[in-house]
Amino acid sequence: MKIVRNLSKAIIVTALLASSALTAFAENIIIGRANEPSAIDPQFSRTGNNQMTADNMFDTLLSTDANLQMRPSLATEWNNIDPLTWEISLREGVTFHNGTPFTADDVIFSLNRTDKVPNSPAPFTDVVSSVAKVEKIDDHKIRVTTKAPNPALMEQIGRVFIISKAAAENATLEDFNSGKAAIGTGAYQFVEWKPAESLKLKAYEGYWGEKPDYDMVEYRFIANDAARTAALLSGSVDLIDAVSPSDIVRLEGQKGFKVFPIDSGRLVYLALSMRDDTAPGVDDLSGKPLNPNPFRDARVRQAVSMMVDRKLMVDRILNGSGVPSAQVVPSVLGGYAEDLQPQPADGAGAKKLLADAGFPEGFGITLYSSNNRFPGDGDIAQAMGQMLARGGLKVNGVKTQPYNVYAAAATKGEFGAFIFSLGASTPNSEANLRSLLQSYNKDAGTGGFNRMRYANPEFDAALKSAMEEFDQAERMKKLQEATRIAMKDQAIVPLYFQKIYWASRDGIDFTPNLAERTIGQDVRKAK
């Protein structure tokens, strides 16, 4: 049984007060962002750019501290009655941006809706897949029954953004994008979204938590790294995210500006599609689609991993802005397996494995990547292409696309070999293992981010055992074992954990968490 009582709302990003005055900012702040959301509907896509936007306007049942430990938010207490039953108490006195009260009906509606949003490129399906039913006890208490024992239930449903049932019940995506249905309980409320340009928010006077310092927050979407840095230096924005590694030294040497490094839990990885008998962009040496799909052979996946020089990638391409990885979460999170460490590149070993798998001369491959999702993603793709070519593959090309286009295409299975990323948002590895590596099953709501369609019954069984283990220490051991199975099978090719950089004008100071998201209400004016 787990009971948590009446703790104050944890703020995702803890702001620190600087010593200098901040007269230039007045009551407004302008933030330059590399990526804009694909929609304002907070349940439309579980990608970082969307969640970063939703965090301002919509609350969740639980929030996280700097180390991703869960804390109460709209839920104040939760009690595991028996292995299948939970009772959750909801915060009283909370109102939506339109003044209507927040009740259990809104939570039930939000939980039931989150896996039914049409055309979602990255659905929240897996966070509610274990839920059998949600019942109302009274206006501020609900009962959740799970399909099987699930000790991580609150870590999962606690991340669902809560929306107003009255505003969203019959709303379209355009109703959210226009602001009509974008009614949350967060510190800021919607003002205006101009796609590819800006998003404006204003402080909600009836907010239940700590009052934000700024009356207005404007996000300006500036995809180009150099242009975003130039906007900060010129004074047209006050704070920027995703600082390019090549701009860090420049900004650190400028008087009146600050750079904030963040060790994030976001894994950048290479995915190898196992969906079909042939994989898009994978062909034989004569240019014909290769059947059978070589990525269905673990030896080929292992060979590809051995071609990658992770240290060179981090040191040379990213100027040190990363930590080489061999698994899905960093060492500070539960389920991390200490014995799984990145290995040096081994070209000879890679070629031997390819030969053992029946490809002594290699095969053709086209590598795909975003070009504006995270700092250096286009450069990483080019470097990866060179590494794969040296390892024995015929690299026919490296193709990059804007993230909003790229993410949807990757979800549809249009790429055979593609670079993607996944951030950590819970205290341990279970959520990432479930969403990224568990066998995909739309009806069961599993493997929501498993764009490769990796499937291994041994891994699924090990993960299921971990997911149903209520003893915390034993659960972590089982998560480690599941990780070892998947990494031995080279389900994905982990590359590195990002080191994220933000930069600001003097007068702003903050300490973001491992989820690397900074939101408007958590950026404080200096006093």
From TrEMBL:
Indicate the family of this protein: Belongs to the bacterial solute-binding protein 5 family.
Q: Which positions fall inside the Solute-binding protein family domain?
A: 70-442
Q: Does the keyword Metal-binding apply?
A: no
Record flagged with keyword NAD: no
Q: Where is the signal peptide?
A: 1-26
- The regions listed as transmembrane in this protein's record are none
Where it mainly occurs, coarsely classed, is: periplasm
Q: Which domain of life is it from?
A: Bacteria
Q: Which PANTHER family match?
A: OLIGOPEPTIDE-BINDING PROTEIN APPA, PERIPLASMIC BINDING COMPONENT OF ABC TRANSPORTER
Identify the InterPro entries for this entry.
Peptide/Ni-bd, SBP_5, SBP_5_dom
UniProt-annotated location(s): Periplasm
Which organism does this sequence originate in? Pseudochrobactrum kiredjianiae
* Name of this chain's protein: ABC transporter substrate-binding protein
Query: Gene3D superfamilies annotated for this entry?
Result: Dipeptide-binding Protein, Domain 1, Dipeptide-binding Protein, Domain 3, Periplasmic binding protein-like II
Provide this UniProt record's keywords sorted from A to Z.
Periplasm, Signal, Transport
